Amino acid sequence: MARKIVKFIMALADCNVNRIDALIRVGLNCHAGINGMLELLDRTNKGLYKPKDYTDEEMLRGVLFLRLGGSRVADLAHRSLGQPGISTIRRSSAVTCVSPCAKTPTQLEIRDNIQEIFKGTNLGGNYGYVLMIDELKLEERPRWDDKTNRILGLCREHTKTTELEFCSIEVAKTILQKILDKKIHWASEASVFSFGILSGERHEYGSRPFVISGTCKREKANPHADLIQNVIEACNKEAKMIGPPMYCVASDGKSCRGSALIILTHKRLLSPSSAIFPLLSDLCLMSLLVGDHNLTADKDYKHVIKRLQNLLLHKMGTLINGVHITPALLRFHLKENKVLQMRLDYLLNPHDRQNVPLCYLLLKEVWSLLDPSPSDTPSFVIARQALQLLGSLFRHIVIPFIQINLSLSDQLAHLSAAAHLATFIYTVNGAQSKALAVLTFWDIVLLVKNACFCVAKTKVGVPDGKIWIILLGTNRLESTFGLVRSMIGTDQNADLLQLSTRLSHAVECLNIFEKKPKWDRGPKSLRLPAIEDGNGDILAKVDHINPSSWKGNVEVATVSLLTSWNRG
Question: What is the pTM of this model?
Fold first, then answer.
């Protein structure tokens, strides 16, 4: 027996068989002895047998190969590494494709998509959700959708009186002529609406896109508000299917949508009869304007951080407490704070304004400026104090989203301080837009207000529940876009029809990465570092900030909104 075991071990060492673990697993499941194992190994070496007992991990890896690399990469992995074949992967993968809208989305189209993506799910109502909205660049070309018999790829703004159902060749000729006459346009971007469940469960909090609509970016605030309102009404009608209630509508910093959200979420004052009114009414300076069903607007915190970086890099500078801060003055003070010249050139690069980690590093250097010494000149002291004031604003906005051991109370205290600092900087000496751009100021105010409202709604709806404010904003939808852009090699821009499929595949991939976070480094330009203390030192062992990695107590039962607000 011992000789046979040694022979088996030597055979294992000499064999060139992929997935040897699967071979042994098959043998054990068949109760094979050492002779049976040697026979299986011999047949495998001769190419007469291939083990088909795929693990869940191998199936997940196969899905990623297929969705991100395409059929060619999946087939290569199957033939060279013994991964599941394409047909096996497709049988095990349940993907729900969202139907794109040829024109302005109708209630029927929206509700059909909602029913499709929530079919078979049971989320319950133990938390709310964010309605996330963002745009993605499209390849400008027409496509025929065989499911609806419609021509896709045109803008929703100008196709209301154009027939898009492909009944005859005359329809196509009419569309072409209208494009040549510039009466209608190709869709240069797709507006994507997505659910973002505020749950700590990995299989629930991923982005769930359900509306895809082409736009030529000529839409004004009022029509855009009508579009959003139409989507909100469809969601309300499908409330039983969705489960959780809608807490807020989140967007990036686009001015058109910002105006539309103000129209929808600043309709009236919060009613004193509302269950959340006692929790919010005593917060000094808090705006209590809400929309229907107490809906509020939210701004993505990463876009706010990028706006603050742009504030520092703008050649005209900014006026902080009477001091004109320019890039040259900032460079001087950072250099006095022992920041190396090479690092200064990297941090103050005006051509790299979409890099979120770079934004963080620059803002961190500003809030890390040391106090002036007694020997410094008065002008230096005044400028340094102005920069420290601005740095305090930066710190209180950034820290709540990256310091993973903060409690929910501490996060709200930081956000309260950010709102009060922004208000002071904006109003002192009548500076207003000379200090902070109007959009930047309102984005900060809306971000802080929405966080407080969402906590209040959770305290009322789920008194023993939790809420992660890192799930607010549009970050989860942008992560989905990042995967869409990296799918199928260099074919980055999809047309409207392709986008519907790729979004579904991207959501499937993101769900796998949530189960296997070590497999994914995430979009480098969107990833904020995790820290454990207020100094801002990066925590290398945490690659992704998500509910699973957050260590602080986020139970709403332990939070007093008034106390946290006053602390800030």
Answer: 0.84
